[in-house]
Specification:
Layout: H1 3-8, H2 11-19, H3 25-43, E1 46-49, H4 51-67, E2 78-82, H5 109-116, E3 120-125, E4 137-138, E5 142-143, E6 145-146, E7 149-153, H6 159-166, E8 172-177, H7 183-189, E9 192-195, E10 215-220, H8 223-233, H9 251-254, E11 264-266, H10 277-294, E12 298-300, H11 309-321, H12 328-331, H13 337-346, H14 351-371, E13 377-381, H15 414-418, E14 422-429, E15 435-442, H16 447-460
Parallel strand pairs: 2-3, 2-8, 11-12, 11-13
Antiparallel strand pairs: 1-3, 4-5, 6-7, 8-10, 9-10, 9-14, 13-15, 14-15
Helix pairs in contact: 3-4, 6-7, 8-16, 11-13, 11-14
């Protein structure tokens, strides 16, 4: 098996091979590091590659395997961590000159859980500055390139994780999602990304700066790999006061239970969003295929809460980013100009304005949950557009704005505010060969249902054989 094949091997296949000693953790890690070395100059998915530490962990995993020690669920499996999460002894730059070189003393809880189950951490993947935007560039690390078209947006803020997954940098990649930052790079890169219910995956420090909208979750090439990774990462943690009390269901074992007799809604625009016609057509066709494959009816809907989201989403986004205003006098020349513009727009929001906005948000969230009493799943596009040049904040044919990238990502942030689980699934390619994602949203806490629905679509419309043109 060559380096490319090993890089694309799912964790669900790799784990039994390691346990049967058909392949060693050292061989796997070495092969993936060689692949990263070969492709990174053109992709730029890593903020920090910890090759030496990864090899040390792989050798320890191999030693434990040969000694007959008890093995964790991810023993010897390579993973990557987004550069907004703490990994002990590995710098956390957060895509910004402001915080470059920050050195966490301890792992965040989900990183500790991955380690405890034997995962081999390859390093930290790139993010936009403080995760503020859906475009795959930062002033610190530059452009992270879409593996399907060099120079194009790979999505953000979990840009590096999406690219690493698509490029075959191993099977498991962690992302975080505060307004679509798992689902957007999954859409642009043609991989699977799941934003679980809020609190399912604990984190520390708790990211309360977005009014509790940031979710951690898996980005993989298969639904089964995400089910496994999510199960390992999930569960209550004493340091995260927002973490859910319940431990996760057995996602891997129940993945194939199916989603028969479910009520499935479809909305191409949530009643207000501008969507590229080619994207809309691909997603509608995929939604119809999903309904047929699962024996369910597909109902076109226009949710009454949809049109209320944009003003709330934009107001909350800019208001919370004003926390960075204190850095502008010293760092403006080295900050993302769009981030600076967004911060300054938030300066016009008074405390009373914010309190009113937050009350409206709570009413909006309640309306979403009330609506889901009548539906099991909502299907939408993941993003309104396919990939566009990464030096731009907007596609060329999109209305221009100093910072409002949310205009092409209207389908994701509502479910950050409402805490529903939502996944982006590869569902086709544009005529230009760029990936498009379909979003499946479930009721809050129904992470298992979203995974089962995703697995059903994957069985009907497999995507893992589709690889970007990186290897010659």
């Amino acid at each position: 098996m060559n380096d490319t094949d090993l890089g694309y091997l799912p964790a669900t296949q790799l784990i039994p091979m390691i346990r049967a000693k058909q392949i060693s953790p050292v061989e796997v890690t070495s092969a993936i590091l060689r692949r990263i070395e070969k492709l990174e100059p053109q992709l730029n998915a890593f903020a920090t590659l910890t090759a030496d530490q990864a090899m040390e962990a792989a050798r320890a995993a191999e030693k434990a395997l040969m000694a007959g020690d008890t093995l964790g669920r991810l023993h010897g499996v390579p993973v990557t961590i987004k550069d907004l999460a703490a990994v002990a002894g590995v710098k956390m730059d957060s895509g910004s000159h402001i915080t470059a070189g920050t050195m966490p003393a301890a792992d965040t809880p989900f990183v500790a859980r991955l380690r405890a189950e034997g995962a081999v951490i390859l390093g930290k993947t790139t993010t936009s500055e403080f995760g503020w935007t859906g475009v795959s560039r930062s002033p610190l690390t530059g452009i992270t390139h879409n593996p399907w078209k060099h120079g194009y947006n790979a999505g953000a803020s979990s840009a590096g994780a999406g690219v690493a997954s698509a490029a075959g940098y191993g099977p498991l990649h962690q992302g975080s999602d505060g307004a679509g930052s798992i689902r957007m790079p999954a859409h642009f890169c043609g991989v699977f990304g799941l934003k679980p219910s809020y609190g399912r995956v604990p984190s520390y420090p708790v990211a309360g700066t977005g009014d509790y909208t940031s979710h951690n979750g898996p980005m993989t090439r298969s639904v089964a790999d995400s089910a496994l990774m999510l199960q390992v990462m999930s569960g209550p943690a004493v340091l995260d006061h927002t973490s859910l009390e319940a431990w996760p269901a057995d996602y891997p074992a129940r993945l194939g239970d199916g989603v028969a007799k479910r009520r499935i809604a479809f909305s191409a625009d949530l009643g207000h969003a501008r969507v590229d016609p080619e994207v809309a057509a691909l997603v509608r066709r995929a939604a119809e295929d999903f309904a047929r494959a699962t024996g369910n009816d597909l109902h076109d809907v226009t949710p009454g809460w949809g049109k209320l989201g944009p003003e709330i989403g934009r107001g909350m986004w800019s208001a919370h980013l004003t926390r960075l205003a204190k850095f502008i006098p010293q760092f403006e020349a080295r900050m993302d100009p769009g981030l600076v513009a967004c911060i300054r727009s938030g300066d016009t929001i008074s405390m009373s304005d914010y309190q009113e906005l937050r009350l409206r948000k709570m009413e909006y969230v309640a309306a979403i949950h009330a609506w889901f009493q009548d539906w099991d799943f909502l299907i939408t596009p993941s993003v309104s557009v396919a990939a566009f040049p990464a030096e731009q904040l907007m596609p060329s044919d999109w209305p221009k704005h100093d910072w409002d990238w949310l205009s092409w990502a209207e389908f994701s942030y509502p479910f950050n505010m409402s805490w529903n689980p939502a996944a982006s699934l590869p569902c086709g390619f544009t005529a230009a060969g760029l990936p498009v994602g379909m979003q499946i949203v479930g009721r809050r806490f129904d992470d298992l249902g979203v995974l089962q629905a995703s697995a059903a679509f994957e069985a009907a419309r497999p995507w893992a054989d589709k690889r970007p043109p990186l290897d010659v």
